[in-house]
Design a protein that fits this description.
Radius of gyration: 17 Å
CATH superfamily: Divalent-metal-dependent TIM barrel enzymes
Helix content: 40-55%
Strand content: 5-15%
CATH class: Alpha Beta
Structural class: alpha/beta
Order of helices and strands: EHHEHEHEHEHEHHEHEH
Number of domains: 1
Oligomer: single chain
Distance between the termini: 12 Å
CATH topology: TIM Barrel
Shape: globular
Number of helices: 10
Largest sheet: 8 strands, parallel
C-alpha cells in the first residue's frame, strides 16, 4: 500500500489563492506521505513550464503525484455543456502525465433535475468510454468514484445512489475504467460502505479514505473518528482482495495540520492491523 492525501480542508484555499500548490507539496512531504493528490480546479496556469516546475518540486521532496482529482459533468443537460466537459477532460489527460500522476478521478456528473436516469446513465457511459482510449494512450487510468457532491457543483452527484453507480460500473465492465472507492460517501447517502465495496472490489484501483460522524448527511471528521468501519473495510481489501495500491486520505475535518497527522497515522495503523 502507498499512502497519499487529498487536502479537502484546503481545497477552496488553493482554488482561491490563499494557499499555493507548492505549499501543499511541502506539507505533504512534512507529513511523511508517499504521494499527493491534486485538484483539477487548482490548475488555472496549465503551461508546460509551470507543470514541470511542480513536478520537479514533487520529486525533489521524494514524493509522487498520485491522482488528478477531476469532477467531470457528463450529465449536463445541454450538448454544449457535455462537449465542454469532454474537452476539459482531454486537457486533464494531457496534464496528468506531465505532473506524473498515474490516476485521474472521474465522476458521473451532477443530478440535473431535467435529466432522467436512463439518459444520464447513457451520457456518462458514452462520455467516459469515448475518453478511455486517450487516457490509455497517455498511460493514465480513469478511476470512477462513488461520489456525493463536488464543492463547485450546484447539485449532488448523479450516481450518489449506489444503484445508479453500480449500473454505470456494470455498463463499463470489460473496459479500462476502474473505481476510486470512497469509504465515507455511501454513509453520507445513508448506505453502508462494505456491501458496495464487495460488488466493485475487482475494479478498485484506488481508495479515498474519508470519514463522517453522521449517516445521511455531510458531517466530515478526522478519519478514524467517524462511522466508517475501517477494520472491516481494510481487512477485506487487504486479506480478500489483495489490494496493494494507493490509499488517499481525504482530510476534510478542517482541524488544521494536526487533523492531517491524526488521519494519516490512523490509516497507517489501521492498514497494518488489518
Amino acid at each position: 500500500m502507498r499512502l497519499s492525501c487529498i487536502p479537502a480542508t484546503y481545497f477552496m484555499d488553493i482554488i482561491e489563492g490563499r494557499m499555493t500548490m507548492e505549499a501543499w507539496i511541502d506539507l505533504a512531504a512534512a507529513l511523511g506521505l508517499d504521494g499527493l493528490d491534486f485538484g483539477q480546479a487548482w490548475f488555472r496556469d496549465r503551461r508546460p513550464a509551470t507543470i514541470a516546475s511542480l513536478r520537479r518540486r514533487i520529486e525533489g521532496r521524494g514524493l509522487q503525484a498520485c491522482m488528478l482529482t477531476c469532477a467531470p459533468d457528463f450529465t449536463h443537460p445541454e450538448a454544449t455543456g457535455r462537449r465542454a466537459t469532454f474537452d476539459e477532460m482531454r486537457a486533464m489527460i494531457e496534464l496528468a502525465p506531465q505532473l506524473g500522476a498515474p490516476l485521474i478521478r472521474v465522476t458521473a456528473g451532477q443530478a440535473h433535475p431535467s435529466v432522467s436516469r436512463d439518459k444520464g446513465v447513457a451520457w456518462v457511459v458514452e462520455g467516459i468510454t469515448k475518453l478511455l482510449p486517450d487516457a490509455e494512450a497517455a498511460g493514465v487510468t480513469f478511476a470512477y468514484e462513488n461520489h456525493t457532491k463536488a464543492s463547485v457543483w450546484q447539485y449532488p452527484d448523479f450516481s450518489e445512489d449506489s444503484a445508479i453507480f453500480l449500473e454505470i460500473v456494470r455498463a463499463t465492465e470489460g473496459t479500462a475504467l476502474r473505481v476510486n472507492f470512497d469509504t465515507a460517501n455511501p454513509l453520507v447517502h445513508g448506505e453502508d460502505p462494505l456491501p458496495l465495496l464487495r460488488q466493485v472490489a475487482h475494479r478498485v484501483a484506488s481508495i479515498h479514505a474519508n470519514d463522517t460522524r453522521a449517516r445521511g448527511r455531510f458531517d466530515f471528521c478526522v478519519v478514524g473518528q467517524g462511522l466508517v468501519p475501517y477494520a472491516e473495510v481494510f481487512t477485506f481489501l487487504k486479506r480478500t482482495v489483495g489490494f496493494d495500491g494507493w490509499i488517499s486520505v481525504e482530510e476534510y475535518s478542517r482541524t488544521g495540520e494536526e487533523g492531517f497527522r491524526e488521519a494519516i497515522r490512523f490509516v497507517r495503523d489501521a492498514w497494518e492491523a488489518a
